[in-house]
């Protein structure tokens, strides 16, 4: 089983989502039973909708249980704030060609939200940044081609995760 890095806060969010979904189970099972009592199941839209919702709920529960079982919880506060980019680092990068500046926090795959400034350490950008330091240039292979970035700043902002 591959271990997946995740911050303590991210782990807790997944646990809360799992509990919420488990709490929804009885209501969906009741809805299926009530719809079944209405008669002919072939033309019962409520029954089919409840069964579909139940299937999606169970799939998400299994996914979360598997992810939590594989989680390698990393306490961001215990990480030494050094110069090298690692899990939990917040990195400011500048595109060498366009001058566009981006700021990302490197977290686990289940915490990545690029639109909110966090990317996965296993993403192409995350993998390229790991082990680098401020001032280094990195070339990242993306579907559009190669992008070259300069690492402008590395810090550890523990309140983010």
Task: Please outline what is shown here.
The protein is an alpha/beta fold.
Written account of the structure:
This protein has 161 residues and is of the alpha/beta class. It folds into two domains: 4-74, Helix Hairpins (Orthogonal Bundle); 76-160, Chitinase A, domain 3, CATH 3.10.50.30. It has three helices and seven strands; from the N terminus they run E-H-H-E-E-E-E-H-E-E. It has helices at 8-37, 45-70, 124-129; strands spanning 4-7, 71-74, 90-95, 101-107, 118-120, 137-142, 145-155. Strands 5-4-3-7-6 form a five-stranded mixed sheet. Helix 1 runs antiparallel to helix 2.
Question: What is the CATH H-level superfamily of the largest domain?
Answer: Transcription elongation factor, GreA/GreB, C-terminal domain
Supply the number of helical segments: 3
Order of SSEs: EHHEEEEHEE
Quick one: overall form?
elongated
The total tally of domains equals 2
CATH topology category name of the largest domain: Chitinase A, domain 3
* Whole-angstrom Rg: 21 Å
Count the beta strands: 7
Oligomeric form: single chain
Helix content: 25-40%
Order of strands across the widest beta sheet? Answer: 5-4-3-7-6
Low-pLDDT segments = none
Named CATH architecture of the largest domain: Roll
CATH class of the largest domain equals Alpha Beta
Sheet/helix structural class: alpha/beta
